[in-house]
Amino acid sequence: MSKHKTKGARGPRRVVRRTEDFRRVEVIPRRTEYLDMSAIMTEWLKTPTGTMSLRKEQAWALSEIAEVEGLFGPIGVGVGKSILTLLAPTVLEAQRPLLILPAATRDEKTIKKDIPELAAHWRLHPRFIQAMFDVEARKECILSYEELSRESQADAFHRIKPDLIVLDECHKAKNKKSAVWRRIERYFLDYPGTKMVAVSGTITTKSLRDYAHLAKLCLKDTSPLPHRWADLEDWADALDEGVDPDQRPDPGALELFCKPGDTPRQGFRRRLLETKGVVATESPSSQASIVISELPVKPPLVVREAFEKMRSEWLTPGGDIIMTALELAAHLMELACGFYYRWKWANGVVDQEWLDARKAWRKYVRETVKLSGTSKVDGQLFDTEQQVASACSQGRLRPPLDEYSVWRNIRGRSKPETEAVWISEYLVDVGFEWLKKPHEVGASGLVWTEHKALLERLRPRVEALGLRAYGAGQHDVIYETKSCVVSIDAHGEGKNLQAHHSRNLFLCAPTNAKVWEQAIGRTHRQGQQADEVTVEVVLPCIEFWASIEKSRKQAKYIEATTGQQQRLNVADIVIPNEAEILKRAKNKDPLWVKEISVSAILDGPRVQKKERNETLDSSSEDD
């Protein structure tokens, strides 16, 4: 055990040890050569009349699947993962393959487009061919993550009894507490011989914990990540992004993976990528350059005044209490778009008791978070509602008016909807004017937004121009040839939009590297004919800028540990640096004051070990 101590540490500094699990990883054979299997694999898998050829990365992945009988694939956005997921059952001669993918890409893209196009060239599994025509057959071989999370599908795996599970966009299963992952895990416990192929262009954003469990089921004992929880905790704390320096262990045994001059992350990356069954693409799939720049905007006085009021009072314009710095940042970014949300009660009947209990609980959470680390809360650290709720349930905190129990007992009684209240449509005007501008033929553009309220506000305006806005369920966006408005949540993954679009405008800056990589990858991918893909982003306030800075840090971590080159790292980024942001803040502009909400975005909440993930509000885990 290392004797080192760090400032603020309560004891000897942890060190990554050479445990039995470490030695298992240490002796896994390393890949020593990379052969171009394109011609061999194409000849094996194509139909007699097929004319398509596999790209080098695709052929390599399929050959690894054949050799290892599984695949863990951090394969870049736009490389062509669909063909891998559809040919994996053929390569492994599976009897009952089950392909799991996001609902947004299942019907319109995979079943109606990809399978018919690829079936003419490749020997797809008979079940996939049948799924094109038979809805019932489809339920036995192609399901979505969303479907498999439902209570009605609790026995789906044991009913279908797949001998191969293929996870497309496998980051959808990174949450080990999600229903879909727990069902997969239970099935593997009962049928450990089941094979797994898992691929994603955005397999992680900040932690080894995002994918160690996936790699374990794909590669079994040859997974280059720890199987034991304690070892994974040490590795992750030593390598992950955003770990408190006082809590970061000494790399210890991880240095055995390093060559002279390597950092621990570089050594781990080499160990990961040299493992057979791990296939990662190290460069984006398109040769087009990427330019990310700011589209300057000036929010009107009404927005600036609302910003100043929210920053000082920690209340939404609708009177709702804001509990934490991260929540403040989220509300400020909505306000910067020109609107806020308020409750919408069915038939106008307000449940005042519910509102009062919720308000009292949120006020208690806010005050507790403010006292974090002080003697008034026994030195405990609190950054989130979940942490406060856990402490209350465990008796470590005792609210004076029993706010926790009162809210816990009443919270499920009412479920009011929310509605957007607009204070300014200036950002709607920005998106509309951008779409109206004349551009060269073939350079149509996409206006991206994460807010349904903003998309719906734009819809009637763009439709008056003969253009469209594509929200949830509107999967025909893949056939759109004109400029349009698109939802990041609905179409930021799995849609090929490069044939007709090379320009992008983000009215809402994505808040993490995964979303950036996926969204830019809709147009920056194989088949893009333009020499340059342009990405303009609106930065009406410092919180949006901070989100980009955080995403850039995450992108560096992803590339350093997985080898996946990130588009944020290769793009020419022309947005203000920190010095320029500080200049904007000098005039006390409420939109650009660097306060606690910015630190919350850049640093994130402190994580406490063994914390129960319990919440008393409408938030939920990613699934």
Describe what this molecule looks like in 3D.
The protein has 623 residues and is α/β, with parallel strands linked by helices. The protein has 3 domains: 55-224, Rossmann fold; 289-299 and 424-592, P-loop containing nucleotide triphosphate hydrolases (Rossmann fold, 3-Layer(aba) Sandwich); 301-421, no CATH class. The chain is 41% helix and 11% strand. The protein has helices at 20-26, 38-45, 56-68, 81-91, 103-119, 126-131, 135-138, 145-148, 156-160, 179-190, 212-219, 229-239, 264-273, 301-313, 325-336, 352-370, 385-393, 403-410, 426-436, 452-464, 488-491, 513-520, 542-562, 567-570, 578-585, 596-603, and strands spanning 71-74, 97-101, 142-144, 164-168, 195-200, 289-295, 339-344, 417-422, 444-449, 468-470, 484-487, 501-506, 532-538, 572-574. The strands form 3 sheets. The protein has a 7-stranded parallel beta sheet with strand order 10-11-9-12-13-6-14. Strands 1-5-4-2-3 form a 5-stranded parallel beta sheet. A two-stranded antiparallel ribbon has the order 7-8. Helix 10 (179-190) links the parallel strand 4 (164-168) and strand 5. Helix 2 (38-45) packs across helix 3, helix 16 (352-370) packs across helix 18 (403-410) and helix 19 (426-436) packs across helix 20 (452-464). The longest helix has 21 residues, at 542-562. The radius of gyration is 25 Å and the shape is globular. Residues 1-10 and 606-623 have low confidence and may be disordered.
